[in-house]
Amino acid sequence: MEIERKFLVNELPQNLDSYPKTRIKQWYITIKPAVRLRERDGVYTFTVKSKGHLVRQEFEMELTQEEFANLFTKVSTHAIDKIRYEISLDNGLTAELDVFLGKHKELNLVEVEFETEEAAHAFTPPAWFGEDVTQEAKYKNNNLALPL
Amino acid sequence: MEIERKFLVNELPQNLDSYPKTRIKQWYITIKPAVRLRERDGVYTFTVKSKGHLVRQEFEMELTQEEFANLFTKVSTHAIDKIRYEISLDNGLTAELDVFLGKHKELNLVEVEFETEEAAHAFTPPAWFGEDVTQEAKYKNNNLALPL
């Protein structure tokens, strides 16, 4: 189970390059349901997410290069391409800031994952966070992915 | 996590039609990894299984008809078509007996699922069970599925 809130970004944090970052590419086999391949620092994963906004069922499995290649033949979308920065917040929380490249170059999104729904509701976003878009389907990565 | 042993069948049980049964059809998007669609009594499911024989990671999610239709466009194999009989054994265990139809018409396989690896190893199969094929890749349904 994944409990997550998602926000637009008012202002990117200072010294962005001082935070740990990775380049992430992901492709969708189907948008609905969200069935996805991801390449991150040479690690390939396969992810399935159920419907939902704040709370979603999620399954993730690491793939060999051969398994990735087999599934890649089923891809229906161009790559989502983004740099993910990991920024520590208070209370042991981490902001995952996604700075998109390519077709969605102007877009930045920040996500925070929580242990419980109570913690998710109680969270007060820092000033650099923008509008809460947790409930907005259009900011889901599967909906941002462009058909081939 | 799924802990399962699989056997050939020496002799089908008497009065087979007295046991609960369902017709199962399943198709593979990829064989490796095993990414599968299933239709069972009008219920559609999507299943991903990791590598492994006795113990495998398994994810299963129910699909709407629309989600099933979207994923069905990605299918690479003909349907596996079988009748599954559920036969109670001792110690609260259940034998799932699959009687295959279509191309694998002569094949019968029986599976038993366990809570723990210890229980799996301790299991003594009834006389109607045949050879233990848990470790034999060729009897996995993904390997039985025929390419389109």
From TrEMBL, chains A, B:
| InterPro entries assigned to the protein according to its UniProt record, in alphabetical order | CYTH-like_dom_sf, CYTH_domain, NeuTTM/CthTTM-like
What this protein is called in its record is: Adenylate cyclase
Tell me which residues this entry annotates as catalytic. 28 (proton acceptor)
Q: Which SUPFAM superfamilies match?
A: CYTH-like phosphatases
Which ranges carry the CYTH domain? 1-148
